[in-house]
Amino acid sequence: MKKKLILGLVVFLMASTLIYAQSNQSDVNSQGTMNAATVEQHGNTNMSDIDQLGWFNAAIVSQKGHLNDVIIDQIGEFNRAEATQEGNGNMARQKQRDVGNLAIIDQNGKENLAIQDQADSYYFWFFDVGSRAEIIQRGNGNEAYQVQRGNWNSAFAEQHGKENYVVQHQFGNGNSSSVDQRGTGHEAYEFQYGNKNTSTTSQKGGEGEEETEAHQSYVYQKGYGNTQVTDQKGNGNDAYTAQFGKDNSSTTNQVGHNVLSYTLQVGEGNEATTNQAGNGSFSTTAQFGDDNKSTTTQNSKANESYVLQIGDGNEQTTFQTGNSNESWTSQFGADNEAYTEQHGHDGWSGTLQFGNDNEARTEQRGHLNWSGTLQVGSYNNSFVNQHGSQNNSVVFQSGFGNYANVRQNGGGGNEGGNCGGGEH
Question: Hey, what's the signal peptide range on this chain (predicted)?
Fold first, then answer.
Protein backbone atom coordinates (compact mmCIF):
# COMPACT_ATOMS: atom_id res chain seq x y z
CA MET A 1 0.00 0.00 0.00
CA LYS A 2 2.86 2.35 0.83
CA LYS A 3 4.56 1.66 -2.51
CA LYS A 4 1.32 2.34 -4.36
CA LEU A 5 0.93 5.66 -2.51
CA ILE A 6 4.48 6.73 -3.38
CA LEU A 7 4.02 5.65 -7.00
CA GLY A 8 0.78 7.59 -7.23
CA LEU A 9 2.46 10.69 -5.80
CA VAL A 10 5.30 10.41 -8.33
CA VAL A 11 2.84 10.08 -11.21
CA PHE A 12 0.90 13.11 -9.94
CA LEU A 13 4.06 15.22 -9.70
CA MET A 14 5.16 14.17 -13.19
CA ALA A 15 1.77 15.05 -14.61
CA SER A 16 1.79 18.40 -12.83
CA THR A 17 5.26 19.16 -14.14
CA LEU A 18 4.20 18.24 -17.67
CA ILE A 19 1.15 20.47 -17.43
CA TYR A 20 3.28 23.32 -16.08
CA ALA A 21 5.87 22.90 -18.82
CA GLN A 22 3.20 22.78 -21.45
CA SER A 23 1.65 26.07 -20.28
CA ASN A 24 3.99 27.85 -22.71
CA GLN A 25 2.74 28.02 -26.29
CA SER A 26 4.67 28.23 -29.55
CA ASP A 27 3.37 28.27 -33.12
CA VAL A 28 5.79 28.23 -36.06
CA ASN A 29 4.65 28.39 -39.68
CA SER A 30 7.37 28.68 -42.34
CA GLN A 31 6.73 28.43 -46.08
CA GLY A 32 9.31 28.76 -48.81
CA THR A 33 12.98 27.86 -48.93
CA MET A 34 15.64 27.75 -46.20
CA ASN A 35 13.67 29.65 -43.56
CA ALA A 36 14.77 29.10 -39.94
CA ALA A 37 13.01 29.55 -36.62
CA THR A 38 14.38 29.08 -33.11
CA VAL A 39 12.15 29.29 -30.03
CA GLU A 40 13.25 28.95 -26.40
CA GLN A 41 10.80 29.67 -23.60
CA HIS A 42 11.22 29.39 -19.83
CA GLY A 43 8.66 30.07 -17.18
CA ASN A 44 4.96 29.64 -17.86
CA THR A 45 2.12 31.14 -19.89
CA ASN A 46 4.55 32.56 -22.44
CA MET A 47 3.39 32.68 -26.06
CA SER A 48 5.23 32.95 -29.37
CA ASP A 49 3.86 32.98 -32.92
CA ILE A 50 6.16 32.96 -35.97
CA ASP A 51 4.95 33.20 -39.57
CA GLN A 52 7.48 33.26 -42.42
CA LEU A 53 6.97 33.22 -46.18
CA GLY A 54 9.82 33.44 -48.69
CA TRP A 55 13.49 32.58 -48.77
CA PHE A 56 16.26 32.58 -46.16
CA ASN A 57 14.29 34.32 -43.42
CA ALA A 58 15.28 33.78 -39.78
CA ALA A 59 13.36 34.25 -36.54
CA ILE A 60 14.69 33.83 -33.00
CA VAL A 61 12.62 34.00 -29.80
CA SER A 62 13.87 33.60 -26.23
CA GLN A 63 11.57 34.33 -23.30
CA LYS A 64 11.99 34.00 -19.54
CA GLY A 65 9.42 34.76 -16.92
CA HIS A 66 5.66 34.70 -17.26
CA LEU A 67 3.00 36.06 -19.58
CA ASN A 68 5.44 37.24 -22.24
CA ASP A 69 4.13 37.46 -25.81
CA VAL A 70 6.00 37.57 -29.15
CA ILE A 71 4.56 37.67 -32.67
CA ILE A 72 6.87 37.68 -35.72
CA ASP A 73 5.53 38.04 -39.25
CA GLN A 74 7.99 38.03 -42.17
CA ILE A 75 7.35 37.95 -45.92
CA GLY A 76 10.21 38.24 -48.39
CA GLU A 77 13.84 37.24 -48.48
CA PHE A 78 16.82 37.50 -46.14
CA ASN A 79 14.84 39.08 -43.29
CA ARG A 80 15.86 38.47 -39.69
CA ALA A 81 13.84 39.07 -36.52
CA GLU A 82 14.95 38.57 -32.93
CA ALA A 83 13.05 39.06 -29.68
CA THR A 84 14.45 38.37 -26.21
CA GLN A 85 12.23 39.11 -23.22
CA GLU A 86 12.95 38.59 -19.54
CA GLY A 87 10.56 39.39 -16.76
CA ASN A 88 6.80 39.28 -16.89
CA GLY A 89 4.10 40.62 -19.15
CA ASN A 90 6.31 41.93 -21.94
CA MET A 91 4.94 42.13 -25.48
CA ALA A 92 6.86 42.29 -28.79
CA ARG A 93 5.52 42.61 -32.33
CA GLN A 94 7.72 42.40 -35.44
CA LYS A 95 6.46 42.75 -39.00
CA GLN A 96 8.81 42.79 -41.99
CA ARG A 97 8.25 42.83 -45.74
CA ASP A 98 10.50 42.60 -48.81
CA VAL A 99 14.26 42.00 -48.67
CA GLY A 100 17.02 42.36 -46.10
CA ASN A 101 15.27 43.85 -43.06
CA LEU A 102 16.57 43.33 -39.53
CA ALA A 103 14.58 43.92 -36.34
CA ILE A 104 15.84 43.26 -32.81
CA ILE A 105 13.83 43.64 -29.59
CA ASP A 106 15.41 43.06 -26.18
CA GLN A 107 13.19 43.80 -23.19
CA ASN A 108 14.17 43.33 -19.57
CA GLY A 109 11.73 44.01 -16.75
CA LYS A 110 7.99 43.79 -16.96
CA GLU A 111 5.04 45.11 -18.94
CA ASN A 112 7.16 46.63 -21.69
CA LEU A 113 5.71 46.98 -25.21
CA ALA A 114 7.69 47.13 -28.47
CA ILE A 115 6.31 47.20 -32.02
CA GLN A 116 8.37 47.20 -35.23
CA ASP A 117 7.12 47.48 -38.82
CA GLN A 118 9.58 47.52 -41.73
CA ALA A 119 9.20 47.22 -45.50
CA ASP A 120 10.64 48.20 -48.88
CA SER A 121 14.27 47.77 -47.96
CA TYR A 122 15.70 45.76 -50.88
CA TYR A 123 19.13 45.85 -49.24
CA PHE A 124 20.85 43.51 -46.84
CA TRP A 125 21.36 43.92 -43.11
CA PHE A 126 24.44 41.64 -43.09
CA PHE A 127 26.21 44.12 -45.37
CA ASP A 128 25.30 46.85 -42.86
CA VAL A 129 22.87 48.45 -45.29
CA GLY A 130 19.12 48.20 -45.43
CA SER A 131 16.40 48.83 -42.88
CA ARG A 132 17.38 48.07 -39.31
CA ALA A 133 15.33 48.69 -36.19
CA GLU A 134 16.51 47.84 -32.69
CA ILE A 135 14.66 48.38 -29.41
CA ILE A 136 16.22 47.76 -26.00
CA GLN A 137 14.11 48.53 -22.94
CA ARG A 138 15.10 48.10 -19.31
CA GLY A 139 12.71 48.64 -16.44
CA ASN A 140 8.94 48.54 -16.45
CA GLY A 141 6.10 49.91 -18.52
CA ASN A 142 8.16 51.33 -21.37
CA GLU A 143 6.68 51.62 -24.89
CA ALA A 144 8.48 51.86 -28.24
CA TYR A 145 7.12 52.04 -31.79
CA GLN A 146 9.24 51.92 -34.94
CA VAL A 147 7.97 52.19 -38.52
CA GLN A 148 10.34 52.31 -41.51
CA ARG A 149 9.85 52.37 -45.27
CA GLY A 150 12.47 52.82 -47.95
CA ASN A 151 16.19 52.16 -48.14
CA TRP A 152 19.12 52.41 -45.72
CA ASN A 153 16.87 53.30 -42.78
CA SER A 154 18.12 52.65 -39.27
CA ALA A 155 16.26 53.33 -36.02
CA PHE A 156 17.57 52.69 -32.52
CA ALA A 157 15.73 53.27 -29.24
CA GLU A 158 17.08 52.41 -25.79
CA GLN A 159 15.02 53.24 -22.72
CA HIS A 160 16.03 52.81 -19.08
CA GLY A 161 13.81 53.36 -16.08
CA LYS A 162 10.07 53.14 -16.42
CA GLU A 163 7.12 54.49 -18.37
CA ASN A 164 9.23 56.02 -21.13
CA TYR A 165 7.65 56.40 -24.57
CA VAL A 166 9.21 56.65 -28.02
CA VAL A 167 7.84 56.79 -31.57
CA GLN A 168 10.09 56.65 -34.65
CA HIS A 169 8.73 56.93 -38.19
CA GLN A 170 11.04 57.05 -41.21
CA PHE A 171 10.14 57.05 -44.89
CA GLY A 172 12.59 57.51 -47.73
CA ASN A 173 16.27 56.79 -48.23
CA GLY A 174 19.22 56.91 -45.88
CA ASN A 175 17.35 58.00 -42.74
CA SER A 176 18.88 57.35 -39.34
CA SER A 177 17.24 57.98 -35.98
CA SER A 178 18.55 57.24 -32.50
CA VAL A 179 16.89 57.80 -29.10
CA ASP A 180 18.39 57.10 -25.68
CA GLN A 181 16.16 57.86 -22.69
CA ARG A 182 17.02 57.28 -19.04
CA GLY A 183 14.84 57.98 -16.06
CA THR A 184 11.08 58.02 -15.83
CA GLY A 185 8.30 59.19 -18.09
CA HIS A 186 10.33 60.70 -20.93
CA GLU A 187 8.71 61.08 -24.35
CA ALA A 188 10.43 61.21 -27.74
CA TYR A 189 8.80 61.55 -31.15
CA GLU A 190 10.86 61.44 -34.34
CA PHE A 191 9.36 61.70 -37.81
CA GLN A 192 11.58 61.83 -40.90
CA TYR A 193 10.49 61.89 -44.52
CA GLY A 194 12.86 62.21 -47.45
CA ASN A 195 16.48 61.35 -48.05
CA LYS A 196 19.55 61.16 -45.83
CA ASN A 197 17.96 62.67 -42.73
CA THR A 198 19.52 61.96 -39.36
CA SER A 199 18.29 62.63 -35.84
CA THR A 200 19.80 61.91 -32.42
CA THR A 201 17.95 62.45 -29.14
CA SER A 202 19.34 61.71 -25.68
CA GLN A 203 17.29 62.46 -22.59
CA LYS A 204 18.45 61.94 -19.04
CA GLY A 205 16.99 62.93 -15.73
CA GLY A 206 17.40 61.50 -12.28
CA GLU A 207 17.18 57.84 -13.12
CA GLY A 208 15.57 56.02 -10.21
CA GLU A 209 14.22 59.15 -8.53
CA GLU A 210 10.46 59.08 -8.09
CA GLU A 211 10.00 62.87 -8.19
CA THR A 212 11.89 63.41 -11.42
CA GLU A 213 10.08 65.50 -14.02
CA ALA A 214 10.10 64.03 -17.50
CA HIS A 215 11.66 65.43 -20.67
CA GLN A 216 9.92 65.71 -24.03
CA SER A 217 11.49 65.83 -27.48
CA TYR A 218 9.68 66.26 -30.80
CA VAL A 219 11.52 66.09 -34.13
CA TYR A 220 10.01 66.41 -37.60
CA GLN A 221 12.20 66.52 -40.70
CA LYS A 222 11.15 66.51 -44.33
CA GLY A 223 13.52 66.93 -47.22
CA TYR A 224 17.07 66.03 -48.11
CA GLY A 225 20.15 65.92 -45.90
CA ASN A 226 18.70 67.49 -42.75
CA THR A 227 20.37 66.78 -39.41
CA GLN A 228 19.14 67.27 -35.87
CA VAL A 229 20.66 66.62 -32.43
CA THR A 230 18.91 67.07 -29.09
CA ASP A 231 20.56 66.42 -25.72
CA GLN A 232 18.65 67.02 -22.49
CA LYS A 233 19.83 66.69 -18.92
CA GLY A 234 17.98 67.66 -15.77
CA ASN A 235 14.24 67.61 -15.22
CA GLY A 236 11.21 68.76 -17.15
CA ASN A 237 12.95 70.04 -20.29
CA ASP A 238 11.12 70.18 -23.63
CA ALA A 239 12.55 70.56 -27.15
CA TYR A 240 10.60 70.84 -30.40
CA THR A 241 12.34 70.79 -33.79
CA ALA A 242 10.87 70.91 -37.31
CA GLN A 243 12.89 71.20 -40.52
CA PHE A 244 11.71 71.34 -44.12
CA GLY A 245 14.01 71.58 -47.12
CA LYS A 246 17.57 70.54 -47.74
CA ASP A 247 20.77 70.40 -45.69
CA ASN A 248 19.35 72.16 -42.64
CA SER A 249 21.00 71.53 -39.28
CA SER A 250 19.65 71.95 -35.76
CA THR A 251 21.35 71.31 -32.41
CA THR A 252 19.67 71.72 -29.03
CA ASN A 253 21.46 71.21 -25.71
CA GLN A 254 19.52 71.59 -22.49
CA VAL A 255 20.96 71.30 -18.98
CA GLY A 256 18.88 72.24 -15.97
CA HIS A 257 15.21 72.19 -15.18
CA ASN A 258 12.05 73.29 -16.97
CA VAL A 259 13.70 74.84 -20.02
CA LEU A 260 11.86 75.02 -23.34
CA SER A 261 13.11 75.30 -26.92
CA TYR A 262 11.35 75.63 -30.29
CA THR A 263 13.21 75.46 -33.62
CA LEU A 264 11.65 75.78 -37.09
CA GLN A 265 13.67 75.92 -40.31
CA VAL A 266 12.34 76.06 -43.86
CA GLY A 267 14.70 76.28 -46.84
CA GLU A 268 18.23 75.12 -47.56
CA GLY A 269 21.44 75.23 -45.58
CA ASN A 270 20.03 76.86 -42.46
CA GLU A 271 21.71 76.25 -39.13
CA ALA A 272 20.30 76.67 -35.63
CA THR A 273 22.09 76.04 -32.34
CA THR A 274 20.42 76.43 -28.95
CA ASN A 275 22.28 75.96 -25.67
CA GLN A 276 20.30 76.30 -22.47
CA ALA A 277 21.72 75.91 -18.97
CA GLY A 278 19.92 76.75 -15.77
CA ASN A 279 16.24 76.76 -14.99
CA GLY A 280 13.11 78.09 -16.59
CA SER A 281 14.58 79.60 -19.77
CA PHE A 282 12.73 79.82 -23.08
CA SER A 283 14.04 79.99 -26.65
CA THR A 284 12.28 80.06 -30.00
CA THR A 285 14.03 80.20 -33.38
CA ALA A 286 12.36 80.38 -36.80
CA GLN A 287 14.30 80.69 -40.06
CA PHE A 288 12.91 80.86 -43.59
CA GLY A 289 15.17 80.99 -46.64
CA ASP A 290 18.68 79.76 -47.33
CA ASP A 291 21.95 79.76 -45.40
CA ASN A 292 20.65 81.55 -42.32
CA LYS A 293 22.41 80.94 -39.03
CA SER A 294 21.22 81.35 -35.46
CA THR A 295 23.06 80.71 -32.20
CA THR A 296 21.34 81.16 -28.85
CA THR A 297 23.05 80.57 -25.51
CA GLN A 298 21.19 80.96 -22.24
CA ASN A 299 22.80 80.57 -18.83
CA SER A 300 21.28 80.96 -15.37
CA LYS A 301 17.49 81.14 -15.16
CA ALA A 302 14.29 82.61 -16.60
CA ASN A 303 15.88 84.09 -19.72
CA GLU A 304 13.84 84.46 -22.92
CA SER A 305 15.01 84.64 -26.54
CA TYR A 306 12.90 85.12 -29.68
CA VAL A 307 14.49 84.90 -33.14
CA LEU A 308 12.91 85.28 -36.59
CA GLN A 309 14.95 85.42 -39.79
CA ILE A 310 13.46 85.57 -43.29
CA GLY A 311 15.74 85.77 -46.31
CA ASP A 312 19.18 84.46 -47.16
CA GLY A 313 22.50 84.56 -45.36
CA ASN A 314 21.29 86.27 -42.20
CA GLU A 315 23.10 85.58 -38.96
CA GLN A 316 22.21 86.22 -35.35
CA THR A 317 23.83 85.48 -32.00
CA THR A 318 22.16 85.83 -28.62
CA PHE A 319 24.06 85.30 -25.39
CA GLN A 320 22.25 85.65 -22.08
CA THR A 321 23.71 85.23 -18.63
CA GLY A 322 22.07 86.34 -15.44
CA ASN A 323 18.38 86.12 -14.73
CA SER A 324 15.14 87.20 -16.39
CA ASN A 325 16.67 88.82 -19.47
CA GLU A 326 14.63 89.08 -22.67
CA SER A 327 15.86 89.39 -26.26
CA TRP A 328 13.95 89.82 -29.54
CA THR A 329 15.72 89.58 -32.91
CA SER A 330 14.02 89.82 -36.31
CA GLN A 331 15.79 90.15 -39.65
CA PHE A 332 14.26 90.40 -43.12
CA GLY A 333 16.46 90.47 -46.21
CA ALA A 334 19.92 89.15 -46.94
CA ASP A 335 23.28 89.07 -45.17
CA ASN A 336 22.12 90.95 -42.08
CA GLU A 337 23.88 90.38 -38.79
CA ALA A 338 22.62 90.83 -35.24
CA TYR A 339 24.49 90.26 -32.00
CA THR A 340 22.94 90.55 -28.55
CA GLU A 341 24.72 90.01 -25.26
CA GLN A 342 22.95 90.42 -21.92
CA HIS A 343 24.51 90.21 -18.45
CA GLY A 344 22.85 90.94 -15.16
CA HIS A 345 19.11 90.65 -14.77
CA ASP A 346 15.82 92.03 -16.09
CA GLY A 347 17.37 93.45 -19.26
CA TRP A 348 15.41 93.88 -22.50
CA SER A 349 16.77 94.09 -26.03
CA GLY A 350 14.96 94.32 -29.35
CA THR A 351 16.61 94.30 -32.80
CA LEU A 352 14.67 94.67 -36.06
CA GLN A 353 16.39 94.92 -39.45
CA PHE A 354 14.96 95.22 -42.98
CA GLY A 355 17.20 95.16 -46.04
CA ASN A 356 20.65 93.85 -46.79
CA ASP A 357 24.06 93.86 -45.11
CA ASN A 358 22.92 95.65 -41.96
CA GLU A 359 24.66 95.05 -38.65
CA ALA A 360 23.38 95.61 -35.12
CA ARG A 361 25.26 94.86 -31.92
CA THR A 362 23.82 95.28 -28.43
CA GLU A 363 25.66 94.64 -25.18
CA GLN A 364 24.01 95.06 -21.80
CA ARG A 365 25.72 94.70 -18.42
CA GLY A 366 23.88 95.49 -15.25
CA HIS A 367 20.23 95.54 -14.35
CA LEU A 368 17.01 96.81 -15.89
CA ASN A 369 18.67 98.04 -19.08
CA TRP A 370 16.49 98.59 -22.17
CA SER A 371 17.57 98.81 -25.80
CA GLY A 372 15.65 99.02 -29.07
CA THR A 373 17.26 99.07 -32.54
CA LEU A 374 15.49 99.45 -35.91
CA GLN A 375 17.39 99.60 -39.19
CA VAL A 376 15.84 99.84 -42.66
CA GLY A 377 17.96 99.85 -45.82
CA SER A 378 21.45 98.59 -46.54
CA TYR A 379 24.90 98.71 -44.92
CA ASN A 380 23.62 100.39 -41.75
CA ASN A 381 25.56 99.81 -38.53
CA SER A 382 24.44 100.18 -34.93
CA PHE A 383 26.46 99.61 -31.76
CA VAL A 384 24.84 99.89 -28.32
CA ASN A 385 26.80 99.36 -25.11
CA GLN A 386 25.07 99.71 -21.75
CA HIS A 387 26.78 99.38 -18.36
CA GLY A 388 25.11 99.97 -15.03
CA SER A 389 21.41 100.01 -14.30
CA GLN A 390 18.22 101.41 -15.80
CA ASN A 391 19.77 102.67 -19.02
CA ASN A 392 17.50 103.23 -22.05
CA SER A 393 18.53 103.39 -25.70
CA VAL A 394 16.60 103.77 -28.97
CA VAL A 395 18.25 103.64 -32.41
CA PHE A 396 16.39 104.13 -35.69
CA GLN A 397 18.24 104.28 -39.00
CA SER A 398 16.84 104.35 -42.51
CA GLY A 399 18.72 104.50 -45.78
CA PHE A 400 22.21 103.52 -46.81
CA GLY A 401 25.42 103.38 -44.80
CA ASN A 402 24.22 105.01 -41.57
CA TYR A 403 26.23 104.56 -38.39
CA ALA A 404 25.20 104.78 -34.73
CA ASN A 405 27.28 104.27 -31.62
CA VAL A 406 25.58 104.50 -28.21
CA ARG A 407 27.54 104.12 -24.98
CA GLN A 408 25.90 104.37 -21.57
CA ASN A 409 27.79 103.97 -18.30
CA GLY A 410 26.74 104.29 -14.71
CA GLY A 411 23.31 103.95 -13.22
CA GLY A 412 20.27 105.96 -12.67
CA GLY A 413 18.34 106.29 -15.89
CA ASN A 414 20.67 107.29 -18.69
CA GLU A 415 18.85 107.71 -22.00
CA GLY A 416 20.16 107.75 -25.54
CA GLY A 417 18.49 108.12 -28.91
CA ASN A 418 19.54 108.25 -32.52
CA CYS A 419 17.59 108.83 -35.70
CA GLY A 420 19.27 108.64 -39.09
CA GLY A 421 22.97 108.54 -38.26
CA GLY A 422 25.63 109.95 -36.01
CA GLU A 423 27.36 109.09 -32.78
CA HIS A 424 26.30 109.54 -29.15
Answer: 1-21
Query: How far is CA 147 from each of CA 94, 100, 159, 252, 350, rounded to the nearest angstrom?
Result: 10, 15, 17, 25, 44
**Rounded Cα gap, residues 123 and 323, in angstroms:** 53
- Please report the pLDDT score of residue 398 as a whole number: 98
Give the span between the Cα atoms of 99 and 80, in whole angstroms.
10
Please report, for residues 28, 32, 39, 131, 343, the alpha-carbon distance to residue 55 in angstroms, rounded to integers and kept in the order given: 15, 6, 19, 18, 66
Domain boundaries, the chain: 1-149
Mean pLDDT per 10-residue segment, the chain (424 residues): 43 37 85 96 94 96 96 95 96 94 95 94 59 93 95 91 96 90 95 90 69 85 92 94 96 95 98 96 98 97 98 98 96 99 96 99 97 98 96 97 94 64 44
Length of the chain: 424
Residue type, 59: A
pLDDT of residue 174: 79
d(CA 216, CA 135): 19
pTM for this model (two decimals)? 0.88
